[in-house]
Amino acid sequence: MPSSSWPLGSARAIFVVLACEACRRLGVATMRLLRAFTLAGVLAFVPLVHSPALAQTPPAIAKMNAYVGCINRLSARAYDSRNRYFSWAGKNGPTGHERIIYGTYTIYDTSDCAKNVDKANAMEPHDAELEAAATAYAEAVGKLAPLLKEADDYYTQENYKDDKMAKGKAMHPKLVAAWDAFAAADQKLRAGVEAINDKRALEKLAAIEQSEGKKTRYYVEALMIDAKRVLRASDKEKPDVGAIAQAVAAYEEAIKGAEQVSAAGPKIGSIFMSNAKSYLVTAKQLMRRIRDHVPYSTGDKMMLSSGGGGWMVEGSPPRLLHEYNQLVDAYNRGANI
């Protein structure tokens, strides 16, 4: 695939909610601080606040939190930097004759990620493949950061007006190579984290069913699992409308089950259920847009290309991601709120 056309899923969030009972005990105020560290707004339990409760976090969870912390902190900005660059530069690089030159974005400091990965890799339980993926991620994003800084300085100071875009042309292949290396490392680390998280989520669901039956807590967890499946089915370069419809139907059944058991008590919070239903509406809108080949309007295309306005477009992938953000946010705050 050409460097200027990564798969749609490349810039998507890591769809995980790491179980961390210690985090839940911190309260809503602290959770708001944790939620500041997000990737495209999607939340994960990433303990970044010093607390006695966090000291009790199991090593396996702390290890995963370190990896997710890197992704949540750095990945969105790295992808945004590439999108910003190619919003004005052609796939072969800048020519100096562009009508508008935006430059690119820098990313946050990567040193903490590298340190946290080293610490996490030393923790039990060991997983050689996942640890190698985390190391590769830290190295790739660490190499990307200074290149983006150099490019940002060059374009912000408009130095291309002095050298006829000579340095811009020279930097182009280096930037593309660094973005490609980062994307590959990012996707591999995500896959490893999500595989483990999926396994834990299913194990947790089975344990709840065995101890409590299919009651409130069971359906809340099932709903979150099915919500993630909807997002993944939609997050494809060539989405399969049949697979999306199947995932949406399963998610809708989970909502119905949650409503039924909630009526019998204990009651599931109205905020959580409201977000769950909003996500369902958007999932159906996206499914219908794909199924019925509904094109985006000129205004929709402008918002989708703006980087931050795509979530306002009805039935769009960014809108689905935004609604998923809201659902995970509500889950993290407590489904009984």
Description:
This protein is mainly α and 337 residues long. The chain has two domains: 1-212, no CATH class; 214-337. 66% of the residues lie in helices and 0% in strands. It has helices at residues 21-24, 28-35, 59-86, 111-121, 128-156, 160-163, 166-212, 216-234, 241-264, 270-291, 298-305, 317-333. Helix 4 (111-121) runs antiparallel to helix 5 (128-156), helix 5 runs antiparallel to helix 7 and helix 8 (216-234) runs antiparallel to helix 9. It is globular, with a radius of gyration of 21 Å.
List the topology elements.
Layout: H1 21-24, H2 28-35, H3 59-86, H4 111-121, H5 128-156, H6 160-163, H7 166-212, H8 216-234, H9 241-264, H10 270-291, H11 298-305, H12 317-333
User: Number of helical runs?
Assistant: 12
Global shape: globular
Overall mean pLDDT: 83
Distance from first to last alpha carbon: 45 Å
List key phrases describing it.
mainly alpha, 0% strand, disordered N terminus, 66% helix, 337 residues
Write a compact overview of the structure shown.
This protein is mainly alpha-helical. Helix content is 66%, strand content 0%.
